[in-house]
Write a structure and sequence with these properties.
Length: 333
């Protein structure tokens, strides 16, 4: 009887040790090597702009793959993957892993900010008011509209109500500096109010795969006017490097209207459509699945050039001046 008890205890102990040992072994599909391989291969099969970015993705693999082994820590794996993705210089490329976050921001960090809302309110537009997140004001006969985002917190009704308050303006400044994008429906709703007729605005070209140059046929983007309230007056759109993604689209669309001029710095770009992919370890990979082409055939990934290139100098910043707003305002006086 004692021997039977001993055998049972031994078997139980052996089973427990085996179970603990298994718990310490990573699932092969979640290993550092497997995660790296999956990330690289997903980008290889789905990312849309390797040729435009002049990036040799297999060569990138040969550079970064030797840095990953079965013993690589999560922190090191995240660092290497982020460094590899940064090569693409694409603000729609990101890697999210809990508190670890890589989002490429090099499209604006090396340029002057060229925007300070507090300076605008204090020195130029002390009567600024808000309708939701939309700011608006008038100075003489010049109307001013600030759209900080095209995301969920921007309501189309707020844009409409703010524009109604500017209805007696003989010219208009639309400020989208620091607007990093959001939903295309909000962009369309705003753009349509400044159009006279249905227009071709851009083409979206999606990656088909598996080759880096395998794409579906271009999808033409057309938009029809919503009303004619703002088609007969001069409009200046203020831009900086932080105008990105769907805001970049808005700037492209407005630039094609004959009564509109762009003032400021080149926009930050971001013409691709962002898609998501969950890696085996739960990390979220974001990438550009398409590229956007202007009606003239130009890829807008690197931004839209302004009609008038204006930038705040260090002296402007120290003296609390907004050279971009001042230029547009003087032109519209």
């Amino acid at each position: 009887m004692i021997n039977i008890v001993r055998i049972c205890l031994y078997a139980l102990l052996l089973f427990s040790l085996t179970g603990c040992e298994k718990a310490l072994i990573k699932d092969p599909v979640e290993s550092p090597v497997a995660v790296f391989e999956k990330l690289w291969s997903v980008m290889d099969a789905r990312y849309a702009m390797f040729d435009y970015k002049q990036t040799d993705w297999p060569e990138i693999y040969r550079k970064y793959r030797p840095m990953i082994t079965a013993q690589t820590s999560n922190d090191e794996l995240f660092r290497v993957c982020s460094e590899m993705l940064a090569v693409l210089k694409d603000g729609h490329v990101a890697l999210l892993a809990g508190e670890r976050r890589f989002i490429y921001n090099g499209y604006y960090t090396s340029s002057p900010h060229n925007f300070n809302m507090e300076v605008l309110k204090k020195k130029y537009l002390p009567g600024m008011r808000y309708q939701g997140i939309v700011a608006y004001a008038t100075s003489g006969k010049v109307g001013y509209l600030y759209i900080p985002s095209f995301r969920e917190d921007l309501l189309a009704t707020d844009m409409d109500l703010a524009l109604q308050q500017l209805a007696h303006s003989t010219s208009l400044i639309i400020d989208v500096r620091d607007n990093t994008g959001g939903g295309s429906a909000k962009v369309d709703a705003l753009t349509a109010q400044f159009m006279k007729e249905k227009m071709l605005l851009k083409y979206d070209i999606y990656r088909k795969g598996p080759g880096h140059n395998d794409f579906y046929a271009p999808i033409a983007k057309y938009l029809s006017p919503q009303n004619n309230a703002w088609t007969g007056i001069p409009v200046f759109v203020l831009v900086n490097k932080r105008c990105f993604s769907s805001c970049n689209d808005f700037v492209l669309y407005m630039s094609q209207l004959t009564n509109v001029k762009l003032v400021g710095d080149q926009t930050g770009g971001g013409g691709g459509t962002p898609f998501d992919y969950e890696l085996p370890n739960g990390w979220l990979l974001k990438y550009s699945a398409s590229m956007a082409i202007s009606p003239e055939g130009e890829n807008i990934e690197d931004g839209i050039s302004p009609d008038y290139r204006v930038s705040n100098s260090l002296e402007d910043d120290s003296q609390e001046r907004d050279a971009i707003f001042q230029f547009a305002f003087d032109k519209l006086q």
